[in-house]
Amino acid sequence: MVGDGSRSGRASTRSRHAAVVYNPTKVDLRKLRKAVEKAEADAGWGRTRWLATSETDAGQAVTREAVEKGAAVVIAAGGDGTVRAVAQGLRDTSVPITLLPAGTGNLLARNLDIDLANLDACIAAAFTGDERTVDVGIAEITREDHSAEEHVFLVMAGLGLDAKMIAKTNPKLKKAVGWLAYVDAGMRAIPELSPVRLRYRLDDGGERPLTAHTLIVGNCGSLPGGILLLPDAKPDDGILDIAALKPRGRFGWVRVWNKIAWENGVLRKSAAGRRIIDLTADVRDVAYFRGRRLRATLESPQEFQLDGDEFGTVTAIDCTTDAGGLRVKIPA
């Protein structure tokens, strides 16, 4: 009887298969296929389906195709844009995603403490890993022509310097030095930056005015380089964390940088550092809010970004969170 059950279990496992949605410009396909084929064989799964992203499909359509064909898990092999697109394709399904970081930021993987250097462990997670749920940010954006679009984000959405920095990033420099290319873009964006004026409503509260150089709406808080932009953000708490950067005067940006890089990124990591924070005056150049929904109407059209991708200019945003909306397979 035991032997019959074992054979039945193996047969059931072989009937399952994974799908890989990959960005052909980001991955070494030959190396990746070899590693995935080994992992699927070790786990006793069926043959993996392979689906490439394209200029016309960042991954949403092929992910839905993979689900329709019965994929038990979808491996997102690419940068943050590929991960975001796969997550959007998995909305309203119970199929989990596995992260195979191959981009510049790899922001969700970093915020989930996944070892970016261990390719084999990341791949094995699809077949034998643990599972957790994370929230999915939903951004409804309004264009200048009054048309509306809905997109998901997993890490951060942003207006102002944040979005201009993304728009000004040099692709060749990004490929050469990675996330440091954003620093170069930010330095070039600051001189031409003007404050963003808007009116916002948080949850069921009243409408309030706000003037800021940058507005960030986040599901996660960490950025490359040890920068903790949103110190209270958690990917699975059902809450959006919002930061408004409002540098004042000649040294405003210095105080902003000190807040997010030194205070958040260094001092918060130790008990002694947190005591120092408690004893110092709060930096008025950075304001934090938290809520389940943020609606904002802009005085003039502004550039907008989602998880590091440009999304053009918008005149209004309505951000909410789908708590526990995405299942993620992580290394055991």
Automatic annotation (TrEMBL):
**What keywords sit in the KW lines?**
ATP-binding, Kinase, Lipid biosynthesis, Lipid metabolism, Nucleotide-binding, Phospholipid biosynthesis, Phospholipid metabolism, Transferase
Q: Which SUPFAM superfamilies does the record cross-reference, listed alphabetically?
A: NAD kinase/diacylglycerol kinase-like (SSF111331)
InterPro entries for this protein: ATP-NAD_kinase_N, Diacylglycerol_kinase_cat_dom, Lipid_Phosphate_FormReg, NAD/diacylglycerol_kinase_sf, YegS/DAGK_C
Keyword Amino-acid biosynthesis assigned to the entry: answer is no
Q: Does the keyword Lipid metabolism apply?
A: yes
Which terms in the Gene Ontology molecular function aspect does this entry carry? ATP binding; kinase activity
Gene Ontology biological process terms from the UniProt entry = phospholipid biosynthetic process
Pfam families from the entry?
A: DAGK_cat (PF00781), YegS_C (PF19279)
Required co-factor(s) are: Mg(2+)
Q: Which PROSITE patterns does this chain map to?
A: DAGK
Family per similarity comment: Belongs to the diacylglycerol/lipid kinase family.
Name used for this protein in its record: Diacylglycerol kinase family lipid kinase
- What broad taxonomic lineage does this protein's source fall under? Bacteria, Bacillati, Actinomycetota, Actinomycetes, Micrococcales
